[in-house]
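Extended Data, panel c. Modelled sequence:
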Amino acid sequence: MLKRSTFLILAIACFAVHAGAQKADSKPAYDAKHFSSLIERITAGETSEERGKAIRDELADIKVRISTEGFSRKNREGEMVSGTNIIGEVSNPNAKRTIMIGAHYDKVRVGKGAVDNASGSAAILMLMRAFKNSPLKNINLQVAFWDHEEQGLHGSRIYAENRKEKGLPAMYINFDVYGYGDTLWLWSAGEATDFVNALMNAGTQAKFNAVHGNVYPSSDHKSFAAAGVEAYSFSLLSADEVKGITELLGGTPPAAGKMPKALATIHTAEDTKDKIDAAAVVKSLPVIEAAIRALDK
């Protein structure tokens, strides 16, 4: 018979081996090659159905609960628009609140929709894997992929409208045009909140540039802000682009030949996978993860 001390040593050793094996089996959340692979798989699809399949396959690999919600509504021209939203969830029965991170996965007819917005979709897939590998304690995390954003925010608007009375997440964090650059651009409606402060602190700690403002292009964050949800939106761009787009939205046209790169790329045939800087994206994502974890109290 083994002595008690020997048994304890063996038990600890077995636990360490088991834990090490589990860690080795789980894919790293942030990997540039994997991000590039996600972009390639999503942009290979010309239709939302094809792009959505690549997203659902990745969610299945992450092993989160997946649901889809079809919708139909008329656009401004009176034409019927039909699409599908994709929702994933890392459920937490002890959660005090729900945070949703989201991105649209549809594209305009021209180009491959790599920067706008396979990049945002791939970014939140990586974040979801990070939070699946190391779950939040007091937050129920959802991830959403919206269809028909390009035609008028239809997918996110219908989702928010349908749940306004039944219950929406306490916070929504959007990702749009998140494919390259050295600056995290965070939008929120008002003054700095706990999340804004957490993001700025995380950026400082990681030595990654982050800026915050309340001027920002239209995207799915507007659907949640209109429903009264604490809403945010991220882009990853160069500092010069953030400055140029902010000035443009404020009514100052760009100087000749100085159109921000993102605006010269999205919604054109130039929006292809070669515009993505996967290394920049995976460097930025731990900053956002740290800011979200700072809210897990």
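The beta strands are 65-74, 80-90, 97-104, 139-146, 171-178, 183-188, 209-213, 230-237. This feature is highlighted in the accompanying rendering.
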